[in-house]
Amino acid sequence: MKIKNICCIGAGYVGGPTMSVLAQKNPDIKITVVDINQDRINSWNDENLNDLPIYEPGLKEIVNEARDRNLFFHTDVEKAIDEADMIFISVNTPTKTYGKGKGMAADLKYVELCARQIAKVAKSDKIVVEKSTLPVRTAQAIKNILDNTGSGVKFQILSNPEFLAEGTAIQDLLHPDRVLIGGEESPEGKEAIDALVEIYATWIPKEKILTTNVWSSELSKLVANAFLAQRVSSINAISELCEVTGADVNEVSRAIGMDSRIGPKFLKSSVGFGGSCFQKDILNLVYIAKTYGLHEVADYWEQVIIMNDHQKRRFADNIVSTLYNTVSGKKITFLGWAFKKDTNDTRESAAIYVADALMNEQAEITVYDPKVSEERIYEDLDYLGTRSPEENRKLLKVVKEPYEACNESHAIAILTEWDEFKEYDWQKIYDSVIKPAFIFDGRKLLNPKEIKEIGFEYYAIGS
Ligand code: NAD
Ligand code: UGA
Fold first, then answer.
1. What is the CATH number of the domain that holds 13?
2. Which EC class is the enzyme in (predicted)?
3. Active-site residue numbers?
């Protein structure tokens, strides 16, 4: 079966970049990315490629090549579903904020809405691909909805989780470690799997395209994120031990990472992992384990989150205790708000929680981030609901220039590992801040020797 027309529901961090690369590599397939968010679609169609809704290195060049050739963005979801042979579901699956499983389970209402819309509109057979990260066995629920329309239309459900990381999305899509496709073991299932394999095989070596049953594919995505986050929590646990023993966490990471069985990646100690997925997906895994009565399994994975919360809290606590146990009325500068460098995404960023803790102590925070907008930062704080929007705007300011952000500050905290922070004129910054001059480096980004020689009191995670 040769796919000619693809629809992707959800033009977010995953749908947008993934479909852009798919379109670039498959010029003979028409790909339509649809979303209910009109503003987002307008931004994807913006003539100024610097105004795309998400920032990813290399993305605008690819959009520029494929858009209006075989890549289209619009809001007419039904038309796109009707025309497509293959439909990707790439909508958000946040943690539930209400009802059963509140605070843990994945909220599948957006996915279910997609399934119902597909069921309503489809007049010809379709392959439905789960691109969103979903609890194991979700395909069954989607199948139940699709198979009960009475229209006689046949559906095949595939699981094709996405492993891209933000900030490196395009490189990850162009050169993935693997592509995972789960499908039914029937002849129709195999045919559907083959159709999707062919699309990826236009640029990815076949040996990297892994096919499994649906449940293994769905579960592998949650497990991959849980293992990655576990490494960060593990090294962050060790960072606290380093701080009290005189060991240096970077040296420990290097020493253990050279063991090929452990490997060097994902051992960078930090102020805590953020991002839209690690916490959500582990909570989801914990919830699934609990649902099956596997309490030891649930507790084991929950510890990864507990450690991460601890890491964020102790970073804030250390700032307060070092500044003589009070930050009330003191200006504290945040360099970075995004959850990692090279992205404008702030979802679950450690910066939000550290700021909130310091604002509870009446600190006055000034934020500079090269890519995150003022509006986004206030939305993040307002969403917490800790204090009124007016109070948030009174206690926290956002500035567009780093030297201005640092001027007359009592302390500087580095929350995101943006490369440009390393290049600043730190002598100039030292001259402009209140003495003693403190830096709290949540990313171990700066050169301790140089910074201390200038005169700063320098505290870095893990040393
Ligand atoms: P996102 O919030 O950026 O995008 C989702 C989009 O879906 C939104 O624009 C929303 O308006 C749209 N949407 C929701 N319901 C819709 C509907 N019924 N019809 C049309 N559009 C609808 O989310 P994201 O970061 O792209 O994540 C999507 C999924 O991919 C999640 O399950 C996530 O766990 C997973 N994932 C994310 C990443 C990542 O790096 N962000 C990586 C791998 C997997
Ligand atoms: C992560 C996974 O890496 C992707 O494979 C996955 O597809 C994605 O989640 C998802 O499902 O959403 P992402 O969250 O975009 O990608 O970014 P990561 O590079 O994994 O970083 C996550 C967080 O961990 C960041 O806050 C980062 O600063 C932190 N981190 C990462 C560390 O503190 N130390 C490290 O060594 C690595």
1. 3.40.50.720
2. oxidoreductase
3. 277
278 Cβ below 6 A of ligand 1: no
| Ligand nearest the Cα atom of residue 228 | 2
- Residue 9: name the closest of 158, 132, 181 by CA: 132
Contacts of 245 (CB under 8 A, 6+ apart): none
Domain hosting 203: range is 5-212
SS3 358: helix
Task: For residue range 257-272, list pLDDT tens digits in order.
Answer: 999 999 999 999 999 9
The pLDDT tens digits for 182-223 are 999 999 999 999 999 999 999 999 999 999 999 999 999 999
Number of structural domains (the chain) is 2
331 with 205, same domain: the answer is no
Is the Cα dihedral 209, 212, 218, 220 positive or negative?
negative
CA of 230 to the centre of ligand 1 (A): 24
Q: What atom of ligand 1 comes closest to residue 93's alpha carbon?
A: 32
3-state secondary structure of 30: strand
Q: Sheet containing 179-182: which strands, arranged edge to edge?
A: 71-74, 30-34, 5-9, 86-89, 126-130, 155-159, 179-182, 209-212
Q: What is the whole-number distance in angstroms between the Cα of residue 222 and the centre of ligand 2?
A: 13
Taking a C-beta distance cutoff of 8 angstroms, is the pair 84, 9 a contact? no
Final residue belonging to a domain, choices 212, 235, 266: 212
pTM: 0.96
Q: Which atom of ligand 1 is nearest to the CA of 345?
A: 41
221 is in an annotated binding site: yes
pLDDT at residue 299 tops 90: yes
